[in-house]
Design a protein that fits this description.
Layout lengths: L30 H6 L3 E3 L6 H5 L12 E4 L3 H13 L4 E4 L15 E4 L6 E4 L4 E4 L5 H9 L3 E2 L10 H6 L7 H4 L6 E7 L5 E5 L4 H7 L8 E8 L1 E2 L3 E10 L3 H14 L4 E9 L14 E9 L3 H13 L5 E2 L2 E4 H5 L11 E9 L4 H10 L9 E6 L3 H4 L14 E9 L4 H15 L17 H8 L1 H14 L17
Helix pairs in contact: 8-11, 11-13, 14-15
The structure holds flavin-adenine dinucleotide.
The site of flavin-adenine dinucleotide has 34 residues, from strand 3, helix 5 and strand 10.
């Protein structure tokens, strides 16, 4: 999905979130903004408007008044000033993957960071500086030239930006922590247009808030990450079994992960088997249970470490073997094209009991769309090593996460969303009150507070009052400013 001056081919999607507010802003005089803005400004009058306003989740068919394709921090600052002067709601877009639709807005202004795509790898220092229009696929390809990586999304088109500012979770997390745990510094444009740099010693309070506090405090125009040796070739891939083996495979996987070293990143997926040549014909399109796993270490150790997954009950598909890190990171791409409708929920599990596994498996056959999936992800390892107060992210010691991804192509939103919510209700006895922020479509203000925890939420509110007292950045899992 490309935007701004890079034209995308139209996606044949049905969209129901049609808005009416374009005309409300049709008298907006963009002249003063154009005079100071180096990038491209796209309005409803432009031929490429429909491509430019499209986001990953087709539920959100919103019509911004202006899409400001920012090329640098100054473009971001002048756009913010213009938006505030005209009282326009502001949406910030990195990769456009927000399932909650936060990166677009009816009648407001989208600051689209796509043109900011610079990546500077310092292989000697094992660091990378990256601008916010970059996706994980682009960053992985750049760092893998040096055999390096940092924890990134499990799909190549996810934006580095909000992924990192949220609960950024990837295959490498058990070895190297969440994305924000590898963040070393950031450049931020604040709501008042000031550009500041942040790290552990400079504007350290803001830096703390960025590590999981969402896009609440400003627009990040550069991230600096720590890199680690990974790949370029490792052992990883997918095994797939027919759905009637779900109980056996699910419990086996839970026990396997209990003793697995942190070099193993993995997930259990209940889905419909892809209509792909690598799947035996009788299983194609049928309920299936898969394990995706990777071993981040020497090939021989990986082959031995993942062998039990290959040995279990003769899988119908066994693609676990040598693979490049870049290909591993793209493993879920084919199953998640843009332009489908998405509604997601997730929860942190206190433990993965037999009952919790049974419940996930029981929810699977009631699924309303063959594209929807249920996932169980083991956490632990380096994620749990980070002290609770080191970042806004709470619930680090939870051993497992469940994800319920409702994904469909028709317009019967109510039915598909109903299935996701019913699954969430069924899983409630096994979950804490917190969620993994990157994996939820909607979340109440109370749940945001409970996810951070009262103490950290208060600290975030103080930061919000200091850095964004007017709540300019409110299209997010919002932290309201502390009262003066
Ligand atoms: C198919 C798919 C796979 C995914 N896989 C994973 C996964 O493996 N692990 C995981 O943790 N998450 C995953 N996610 C969730 C993903 O991390 C979030 O949706 C995240 O918001 C994507 O980042 P983005 O830059 O594309 O977001 P966008 O949609 O561009 O932005 C959304 C929000 O972030 C804010 N924002 C964006 N850029 C900036 C910036 N530079 N500065 C400040 N605020 C900003 C916006 O204000 C907005 O609130 C996945 C999502 C999808 C759709």
């Amino acid at each position: 999905m490309r935007r701004c001056s890079v034209l995308a081919s139209p996606q044949p999607v049905a969209m129901s979130d049609t808005a009416t507010s374009v005309t409300r802003r049709s008298t907006l005089d963009l002249g003063p903004l154009r005079a100071r803005f180096a990038g491209e400004l796209i309005t409803p009058a432009d031929r490429r408007y429909d491509d430019a306003r499209r986001v990953f989740n087709a539920i959100f068919d919103r019509r911004p008044s202006v899409i400001a394709c920012a090329t640098n921090a100054s473009d971001v600052a002048v756009t913010l000033e213009f938006a505030r002067r005209h009282d326009l709601p502001v949406a910030v877009r990195g990769g456009g993957h927000s399932v909650a639709g936060y990166s677009t807005v009816d009648g407001g202004i989208v600051i689209d960071l796509l043109p900011m795509e610079r990546i500077l790898v310092d292989a000697t220092a094992r660091r990378v500086r990256v601008q916010p229009g970059v996706t994980w696929g682009e960053l992985d390809r750049a760092t893998q030239k040096h055999g390096l990586a940092t924890t990134g999304g499990r799909m190549t088109t996810t934006g580095v930006a909000r992924f990192t500012l949220g609960s950024g979770s990837g295959w490498l997390e058990r070895l190297h922590g969440l994305a924000c745990d590898n963040l070393l510094a950031a450049e931020v444009v604040l709501a008042d247009g000031h550009v500041v740099t942040t790290d552990d010693s400079e504007n350290a309070d803001l830096f703390w808030g960025l590590k999981g506090g969402g896009g609440n405090f400003g627009v990040v125009t550069e991230f600096e990450f720590r890199l680690h040796p990974a790949g370029p070739v490792l052992i990883g891939g997918l095994v797939l079994h027919p759905g009637d083996r779900a109980l056996e495979v699910g419990r086996f996987f839970r026990d396997f992960m209990r003793d697995a070293p942190r070099q193993v990143g993995a997930g259990l997926v209940l889905m419909h088997a892809p209509l792909a040549p690598f799947v035996p014909l009788p299983l194609q399109g049928q309920p299936a249970i898969g394990i995706i796993a990777a071993y981040f270490g020497p090939i021989e150790d990986g082959a031995a470490g993942l062998a039990p997954l290959k040995d279990l009950a003769s899988p119908a598909v066994d693609l676990i073997g040598p693979t490049s890190y870049v290909d591993l990171q793209a493993i879920t791409d084919a199953g998640n094209p843009p332009g489908r409708r998405n509604y997601w929920r997730s929860g942190l599990l206190t433990e993965l009991s037999d009952e919790a596994i049974d419940t996930v498996i029981t929810c699977s056959p009631t699924v309303t769309s063959p594209a929807s999936v249920l996932v169980l992800s083991p956490i632990g390892g380096a994620v749990a090593d980070v002290p609770d107060d080191a970042t806004p992210i709470s619930g680090r010691t939870a051993p497992w996460l469940y994800h319920c991804y409702g994904i469909w192509t028709d317009t019967d939103d109510e039915r598909h969303i109903g299935w996701v919510r019913a699954t969430e209700r069924a899983m409630r006895p096994f979950t804490t009150d917190g969620v993994a922020m990157n994996f939820v479509s909607d979340i109440s203000a109370g749940r945001v507070r409970r996810t951070f925890g009262d103490e950290k939420y208060r600290r975030l509110q103080e930061l919000k009052a200091k850095y964004d007292p007017e709540n300019v950045f409110r299209l997010n899992q919002n932290v309201t400013p502390a009262s003066p």
